[in-house]
Amino acid sequence: MHFNKDSLYANPLGEIAAFKFDESVVNVFPDMIRRSVPGYGAIISAIGMLAGRFSRADSLCYDLGCSLGAATLAMRERIAAENCSIVAVDSSESMITRFKRNLDSGGAGAEVRVVCADIREIAIERASVVVLNFTLQFIPLEDRASLLAKIYQGMLPGGVLILSEKLRFDDPRQQALQVDMHQQFKKMQGYSDLEISQKRTALEDVLLPESFTVHQKRLLEAGFASAEIWFQYFNFASMIALK
Hints:
It is a single chain. With 243 residues, this protein is of the alpha/beta class. The chain contains 9 helices and 7 strands; from the N terminus they run αααβαβαββαβαααββ. The protein has helices spanning 23-26, 29-36, 40-54, 70-78, 93-104, 141-153, 172-188, 193-203, 212-222, and strands at 60-64, 85-90, 112-116, 127-133, 155-166, 226-233, 236-242. The termini are far apart.
């Protein structure tokens, strides 16, 4: 399947609309995510490895905010547990439609059920693995604790939650450094200053990052036994929370 180069913000925009996962983003999403999120490929690969380790027979694995299904497909390749299937959920109809087309193209592995829904409204049950791969940061702040509590309650003992997020830092110098290094990363991927600036404006009130301390505290309050960072590349990190 062909995907275009991300040039959504390459030309000056008179009015910059809030970022949303519509058809225009779907058409460039693989290129956008690769050039915008440092270490994205490594995270996807490791999600597959972790799913292979933690998935259990007669359980469900959830990819919440699945977009085009990169994490789902990585899990499908690695899951060997008997009668273990994946539930992939996203609220963007454009993302789900394209993902279903991609999924139909074939591939062995665990059964996948693709659902177009708000992840705050779906039931979590018999879960051995749950993935929130750069998803929680788009959920309203006031809904994040209840979502994680619901996930915890629906997980089997010994289950794992993989939570990837853009981070902010409490120390102003660290925050400035990490943001600057991320911008340098994007420039190295070919984005211009105009593209970086306009996309930052589009995401300003949509993507709301928090510090690792806040994430860890919320995960522990939800009931998880431990929560630690396993991967970090500038201000992007992925955490493992164990039940």
